[in-house]
Write a structure and sequence with these properties.
mainly alpha; 80% helix
């Protein structure tokens, strides 16, 4: 099933995907690493749960972007 959007709509999705893959996942990984080094398993598990939600959203965005049909706007 195609997803119809404007060029701007596609850019918004691409930017969200880039942000999640770089900035957000990196920050979560740093939080997980810090939690482990401090022995804080509760904080580690919380960060891991957030990471799983982010990975799900990344997969959703990637799937959406594969199905996008950009409509020309005049």
């Amino acid at each position: 099933m195609a997803i119809y959007t404007t060029p701007g709509g596609k850019r918004v999705l691409e930017e969200e995907l880039r942000h999640l893959k770089t900035d957000v996942l990196e920050a979560i990984q740093e939080e997980m690493d810090a939690s482990i080094s401090m022995g804080d398993l509760h904080e580690y598990n919380d960060a891991k749960a957030v990471r799983e939600k982010i990975l799900i959203r990344i997969a959703e965005l990637e799937e959406m972007l594969q199905k996008i049909v950009v409509l020309d706007t005049y």
